[in-house]
Amino acid sequence: MRCEVSPAVLAAIGCLLTGCAPQKPIDRWRAARFGMFIHWGPVSLRGTEIGWSRAGERRGMDRKGTEVPVEIYDNLYKQFNPVLFDADEWVSIAKSAGMRYMVFTTKHHDGFCMFDSKLTDYKITNSPYGKDITAQLARACHRAGMPIGFYYSPPDWHHPDYRTERHAAYVEYMHGQIRELCTKYGRVATLWFDGLGGKPEDWRARELCAMIRRLQPGILINNRVGLPEDYDTPEQRVGRFQTDRPWETCMTLGHQWAWKPDDEIKPLDLCIRILVRTVGGDGNLLLNVGPMPDGRIEPRQVERLQEIGRWLAEYGEAVYNTRGGPFAPGPWGVSTHRGRTVYLHILFWEGDELRLPPIQKSIRGVRLVGGGHAAVEQSLDGLRVTVPPEDRRPIDTIVAMELDGPAAAAQPRREPSGSLAFGRKATASGSRWEDNAKAPAKTIDDDYSTSWMCDTDKDAWLEVDLAEPQKIGRAVVCEMYDRVREFEIQYKEGDEWKIAARGGRIGPKVTLRFEPVTARHVRLFIRSATDRPEIAEFHLFEE
Fold first, then answer.
1. pTM over cut 0.90
2. What is the Rg, in whole angstroms, of the alpha carbon atoms belonging to the chain?
3. 79/90 Cα distance (integer angstroms)
4. 199 and 112, same structural domain?
5. Percent of the chain beyond pLDDT 90?
6. Which candidate, 543, 479, 478, places its Cα nearest to that of 514?
7. pLDDT at 196
8. Is 192 helix (H, G, I), strand (E, B) or coil?
9. Which of 137, 195, 336, 415 has its CA 20 to 30 A from that of 465?
10. End of a domain among 379, 409, 439?
11. Above 70 in pLDDT, residue 10?
12. Are residues 364 and 439 in the same domain?
């Protein structure tokens, strides 16, 4: 009789013999760093947002949808026939982009199931297409060695029992569908819930997560079912610098999660900077594509993904299997590390050199990733990094430093900005972000990885109360993305706001010097921007 031994068992035996420890699922996931998110369904026939464009009642929320009438939205599946869908092609596209895992939307808030659930008729196998999309994609991922995760929305605005006096029946339905996803499609790497808040008891979350882990040992679960579980999920923004708990930024390649005709695709340099800033903050990036109604990923999206893949083919050593830090993110860029190597991702040069705080390790070697010349001078005062202009890269200049010990133990000194605004009171136009991760106070905390998001793309303001009148002659403003096109530094004199300085674009960092003024209340006033800006830091100095 022949005895088959699985690769996992062989790897475990090898680790026992050599004394190594098998890698944990969360460590494998972190090492991947870059994945593909896919939002798709019958709504692509309309080119509107998945779930959110469905009109009518949104039980559990205090607002209604208005865009696509319910009777139209809920019947789109009767016309949905994506005959050009090719699961192997999707996996190939993800691999060509340098993505190392995928997460597929099996059910969004609209309740439509992209898998053959036995618990509902509102599903892909009842469409003209008639086949289980989730099954095809799972098989293709397994063939290619690509980890596959499933997005599932606990909210369901289509189900008649959801958020009614029969909600307990809906929760049974939900648990049944999660059981199907965990038992019918082979190995599942992640379950990505999108609970729109909610408490654990709303979904019987502890019981649910226990069932998932019993059915899929080693699976990872995100933090959107009322429990913290394995990792955090900042959405449409780069998460803050956080090394003590795993996190994953989810972000769209365009503006919309589902396919939108003529959507504005993010340029390559922005995509790379988002990826690099995410990894430098110690997070993963889950970048979303929205396939077209015929089943293809739009050629424009494919082209951008392949460009990202070509960049990663050259510079991926500074992304994959790294951790964020040891240097905190700044306007200049971020750092990543692995073993004894620190990678400085210099995204923005201000002058001829980059100055960084001292580290508690000695530098034994320096090289420029991709070729060229770089130098790092180390002293008790810090590091002085130089790269000749002709060797700097247009998107990300990566300097690798080899240390005499583990890079994780380098522990750079935190350098305070000395801003008069630090620790003061900040307020802003609109109240949407007051108690959020994007509160105005995030702009005066000396932490470039946090930010305040404006509510509008024009006539938005951020005010700092300095507690007492202060002399101010210089302002430094840092933006997460290059969106601002016109702004002013204003100060309050009596009841009137006066202009101290004017500027155009902000980008990673802009410094304005002006005739000194004395004021207690100073504000950044954004006249216009290409989209809602995110201000990372707003610093004020005497001179």
1. yes
2. 25
3. 22
4. yes
5. 90
6. 543
7. 82
8. strand
9. 415
10. 409
11. no
12. no
CA distance 95 to 305: 9
For 247, which DSSP code? Answer: B
Phi, psi (5° rounding) for residue 390? -70, -15
239-252: per-residue pLDDT in tens?
999 999 999 999 99
The strand pairing partners of 56, in sequence order, are: 65
The pLDDT-based confidence of 436 (bands split at 50, 70, 90) is low
Residue 493 and residue 395 share a domain: no
User: Tokens in use for 193?
Assistant: 């819930």
Domain region containing 431: 425-541
446 and 528 inside one domain: yes
Please state, in angstroms and rounded to a whole number, the distance separating the CA atoms of residues 132 and 115. 5
Is residue 122 classed as helix, strand or coil in its secondary structure? coil
pLDDT in tens, 448-486: 999 998 888 899 999 999 999 999 999 999 999 999 999
Q: How far apart are CA 277 and CA 536, in angstroms?
A: 13
- How far is the C-alpha of 186 from the C-alpha of 215, rounded, in Å? 10
Phi/psi-derived region of residue 51, left when phi > 0, alpha when psi is between -120 and 50, beta in every other case? left
What is the model's pLDDT at position 421?
Answer: 96
Mean per-residue pLDDT for 519-541?
96
On whether both 198 and 345 belong to a single domain, the answer is: no
Residue 189 CA: distances (Å) to CA of 15, 204, 205, 227, 287: 22, 22, 19, 18, 17
Structure tokens at 308: 């990202």
For residue 417, is it within any domain?
no
Query: What is the spatial distance between Cα 355 and Cα 362, in angstroms, rounded to a whole number?
Result: 16
The DSSP-derived string for 455-478 is SSSSSEEEEEEEEEEEEEEEEEEE
Any idea what the CATH number is for the domain that residue 176 is in? 3.20.20.80
| Local structure of 270: helix, strand or coil | helix
- For residues 412 and 409, what is the distance between their CA atoms, to the nearest angstrom? 9
Residue 437 and residue 403 share a domain: no
User: Given this model, what pLDDT does residue 438 score?
Assistant: 75
3-state secondary structure of 83: coil
The domain boundary, picked from 367, 383, 409, lies at 409
**CATH for 507:** 2.60.120.260
Residue linked to tokens 């293809």: 296
Instruction: Give CA–CA dist 25/66, Å, rounded.
Output: 42
Name the band, by pLDDT with cuts 50, 70 and 90, for residue 3.
very low
Q: Are residues 529 and 446 in the same domain?
A: yes
Asked whether residue 2 is assigned to any structural domain, the reply reads no
**H helices present in 376-463, as ranges:** none
DSSP-derived secondary structure letter, 42:
G
Residue type, 415: E
Would residue 24 count as lying in a domain?
no
Give the pLDDT confidence of 252-265 residue by residue, as tens digits. 999 999 999 999 99
CB 295 within 8 A of CB 86: yes
* In-domain check, residue 28: no
Q: What is the CATH number of the domain that holds 389?
A: 2.60.40.1180
- The SS3 of residue 384 is strand
Contact 280/333 with Cβ under 8 angstroms? Answer: yes
**Is residue 40 classed as helix, strand or coil in its secondary structure?**
coil
Is the pLDDT at 63 greater than 90? The verdict is no
Considering the domain architecture, whether residues 166 and 251 belong to the same structural domain is answered as yes
Given a contact cutoff of 8 angstroms between Cβ atoms, the answer to whether 143 and 186 are in contact is no
